[in-house]
Every structure is written in C-alpha cells, then in structure tokens.
Amino acid sequence: QVQLVESGGGLVQSGGSLRLSCAASGIVFSIYTVGWYRQAPGKQRELVVKQTSAGRTDYADSVKGRFTISRDNAKNTVYLQMNSLKPEDTAVYYCNAYGSRAATNYWGQGTQVTVSS
After folding, report:
1. CB atoms inside a 10 Å sphere around CB 30
2. What is the dihedral sign for C-alpha 109, 87, 49, 20?
3. What are phi and psi of 110, to 5 degrees?
4. Contact 24, 3 (CB under 8 A)
5. Closest CA to 62 of 115, 22, 26
6. Over the stretch 40-79, which tens digit does the pLDDT of each residue have?
7. How far apart are CA 52 and CA 110, in angstroms?
8. pLDDT greater than 90 at residue 101
9. Are 88 and 1 in contact (CB under 8 A)?
10. How far apart, in whole angstroms, are the C-alpha atoms of residue 26 and residue 90?
11. Integer Cα distance of 51 and 42 in angstroms
C-alpha cells in the first residue's frame, strides 16, 4: 500500500513562512520524481514545483525565489519550504510522486494553506 501524508499546513499571515512535509510509505521517494501541486477553490490543480530523482527542479514562476523543495531520503520525506507567503498562495497543497518506469502516479490527501492579508 502506497501512502503519501502531508503535514504542516495552516493559517499564516502574509509575508510569513510555512514548511510542508510529505512522508511516504510503500515507495522509495529517491527514485521518483516528486512534486508539490496546489488547488484553490474553483480553480484547476497547478504545479508548484517538481524535482526528478536526478535533482532537476522546475518551479512555477509564481513561486520562484520564495519556495524551495528538498528531500530527506533517510526519512523518505519531501519538504516544501514556503517563504514570503502571499494571499494568492492560499490553496490545498498536494504532494505527488511519479515513477516513469511503471507510469505510476501517487497523491497525498492534501493540506490546507491559508494566507491572510
């Protein structure tokens, strides 16, 4: 059974910071492309950042310079450090893992991030 569990969401003021965590079981994150996506009410899910197992990283333009993805392979956990948060960052944030070998795609349940103005 594969499970991705996000944590670290919450309410924060504009300009503040949050660190999201995504802990995986059933897969080894280090061999997957991992990423964070978000979805605001009434809008489609959008890419925040993704990172291949080789370390190639792509950020959405809207978060470049503010958000950072990282991995702790020993803990099988992926993080998203979010700084200088803006109200438009308010969304449910989802952790994702993609394995190209078997074309597998896994999602967490999401964690709510709310940024007040």
Report:
1. 12
2. negative
3. 100, 150
4. yes
5. 115
6. 999 999 999 999 999 999 999 999 999 999 999 999 999 9
7. 21
8. no
9. no
10. 30
11. 27
Residue 16: pLDDT above 90? Answer: yes
CA–CA gap between residue 27 and residue 46 (Å, rounded): 24
**Half-sphere exposure in the Cβ direction for 92 (13 Å, CA):** 13
For residue 26, the tally of other CB atoms under 10 A from its CB is 11
Place of tokens 């310079």: 65
Residue 80, both tokens: 């998203």
For every residue of the chain, DSSP letters joined together read --EEEEE--EEEETT--EEEEEEEESS-GGGSEEEEEEE-TTS--EEEEEE-TT--EEE-TTTTTTEEEEEETTTTEEEEEE-S--GGG-EEEEEEEEETTTTEEEE---EEEEEE-
